[in-house]
């Protein structure tokens, strides 16, 4: 029974020891100031990379928005134009989401990175100017003269040479610790970090020890074989007369790293504790470092996926696309929450892009790289695929060209679909002469009110009454449904252009 208790006690102590140490291999690789500086620098770099990656993500989605907007404007098929417009709207939504996240986190990320870079630089400075090796002194003088004890004071002068660490000390040491590169990846789950104590950041307490033997005066101008102030001809350990001093840091343990828990247990509502009030002083303390690392690992900017890689399966559950599809692609405007869900969205997307799993890629995205478009305005000509034109310096020119074409086509269709007979029906009220009014088809002069007005009992020229009552039949001339799509697409393109300037 007793051996079993020993085993349990050993396991319990081991567990306690493990809990008070870094759990990740990167944190465990921090064993000295060099590796601590590298670990800290890598965390600072990861924060800056988080921000730069988010900016690239936003820029990529903005480029996709431009490309898809240009594709929508260049389509002659209104339904395809709407398909590209929906994808462009999704790219705009995702770019806006990243931009908002950047705005919310940018200052905090940059501040945290600045603090950690400063801490890493201070650690390297300490390592360079405060090496762990013992500093030894050399006698440079031993004479009698005015001093602490009057005119006959015996003074031994000891010079301690300033030493600095080798320039490649940290480089060589950290090269053998590849696990340090995992610092950022393991930080979210890390519990403890090893930090340099604050005592190393400023002036440290010193202890001066003086040793003497025999009659010091007899050792004036003499030196031991090992360079101490003492009798000539023998080492200091056997000298009959001599004096020497030792200057050392009072607490050698100041040089050791301390293990610190990242989270704070003081207040459950503040897992990182209270922000240190002295965060902006000359040196970055251990507490400032702990707090910065604790809060920094919460600063994340979610990456938004590329719209150019989308599929119906990936978009049907996307809330932005659900709303876009319901507003732009569906046959009827959604009025119920159940109509803006996975199933109806999937149905609408398949009707727009195709039922195949890769329909969006095959029927729409692939077309962005296929076939050259020619933009010609006066003596300016631009040629290239939609992808090329959207990335070129003449993107705005190309977009204006395609939108102008669509607008002129819309006006032409509108003009063609207005029947000539309709034009003849208007203008009765413009006639002031009675005879001219009565001669004009469809008009009759009203003697009582002295004005020319429309005669409902008279068929306009070129038409025939087929109504049993003698009144004209009503002829309805519908504008082709294609025109409705063109108008909608044109207005949508204008909206997309406005969105572009908002997300950039």
From TrEMBL:
Superkingdom of origin organism: Eukaryota
Membrane topology: Lipid-anchor; GPI-anchor
Any single GO CC term annotated in Swiss-Prot or TrEMBL for this entry: side of membrane
Extent of the signal sequence: 1-20
Organism for this UniProt entry: Trypanosoma brucei
Region Disordered: start-end pairs: 450-469
Role according to the record: VSG forms a coat on the surface of the parasite. The trypanosome evades the immune response of the host by expressing a series of antigenically distinct VSGs from an estimated 1000 VSG genes.
Keywords per UniProt: Cell membrane, Glycoprotein, GPI-anchor, Lipoprotein, Membrane, Signal
Transmembrane segments: none
Protein's name according to its UniProt entry: Variant surface glycoprotein 1125.472
InterPro entries: VSG_C_dom_sf (IPR027446)
Subcellular localization, as worded in the UniProt entry: Cell membrane
Main location: membrane
């Amino acid at each position: 029974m007793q051996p079993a208790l020993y085993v349990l006690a050993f396991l319990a102590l081991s567990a306690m020891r493990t809990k008070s140490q870094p759990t990740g291999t990167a944190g465990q690789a921090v064993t000295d100031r060099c590796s601590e500086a590298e670990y800290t620098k890598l965390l600072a770099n990861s924060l800056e990379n988080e921000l730069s990656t988010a900016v690239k993500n936003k820029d990529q989605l903005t480029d996709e928005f431009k490309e898809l907007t240009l594709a929508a404007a260049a389509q002659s098929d209104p339904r395809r134009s709407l398909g590209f417009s929906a994808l462009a709207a999704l790219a705009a939504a995702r770019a806006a989401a990243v931009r908002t996240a950047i705005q919310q986190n940018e200052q905090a990320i940059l501040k945290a990175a600045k603090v950690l870079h400063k801490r890493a630089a201070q650690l390297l400075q300490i390592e360079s100017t405060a090496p762990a090796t013992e500093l030894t002194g050399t006698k440079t003088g031993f004479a009698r003269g005015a001093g602490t004890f009057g005119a006959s004071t015996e003074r031994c002068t000891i010079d301690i040479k300033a030493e600095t660490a080798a320039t490649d000390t940290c480089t060589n040491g950290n090269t053998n610790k590849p696990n340090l590169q995992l610092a950022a990846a393991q930080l979210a789950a890390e519990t403890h970090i090893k930090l340099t104590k604050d005592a190393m950041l400023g002036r440290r307490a010193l202890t001066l020890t003086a040793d003497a033997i025999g009659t010091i005066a007899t050792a004036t101008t003499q030196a031991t074989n090992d360079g101490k102030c003492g009798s000539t001809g023998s080492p200091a350990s056997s000298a009959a007369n001599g004096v020497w001093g030792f200057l050392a840091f009072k607490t050698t343990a100041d040089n050791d790293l301390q293990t610190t828990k990242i989270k704070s247990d003081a207040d459950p509502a503040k897992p990182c504790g209270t922000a240190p009030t002295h965060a902006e002083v000359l040196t970055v303390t251990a507490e400032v470092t702990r707090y910065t690392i604790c809060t920094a690992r919460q600063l994340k900017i979610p990456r938004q996926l590329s719209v150019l890689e989308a599929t119906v399966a990936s978009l049907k559950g996307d809330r932005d696309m659900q709303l876009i599809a319901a507003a732009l692609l569906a046959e009827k405007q959604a009025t119920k929450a159940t109509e803006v869900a996975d199933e109806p969205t999937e149905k609408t997307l398949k009707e727009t892009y195709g039922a195949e799993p890769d329909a969006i890629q095959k029927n729409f995205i692939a077309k962005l790289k296929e076939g050259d478009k020619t933009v010609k305005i006066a003596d300016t000509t631009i040629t290239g695929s939609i992808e090329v034109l959207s990335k070129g310096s003449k993107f705005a020119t190309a977009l204006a060209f395609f939108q102008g074409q669509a607008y002129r086509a819309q006006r032409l269709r509108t003009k063609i679909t207005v029947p000539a007979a309709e034009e003849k029906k208007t203008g009765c009220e413009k006639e002031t002469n009675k005879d001219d009014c009565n001669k004009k088809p469809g008009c009759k002069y009203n003697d009582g009110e002295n004005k020319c007005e429309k005669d409902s009992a008279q068929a306009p020229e070129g038409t025939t009454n087929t109504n049993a009552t003698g009144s004209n039949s009503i002829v309805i001339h519908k504008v082709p449904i294609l025109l409705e799509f063109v108008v909608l697409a044109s207005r949508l393109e204008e909206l997309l252009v406005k969105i572009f300037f908002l997300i950039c």
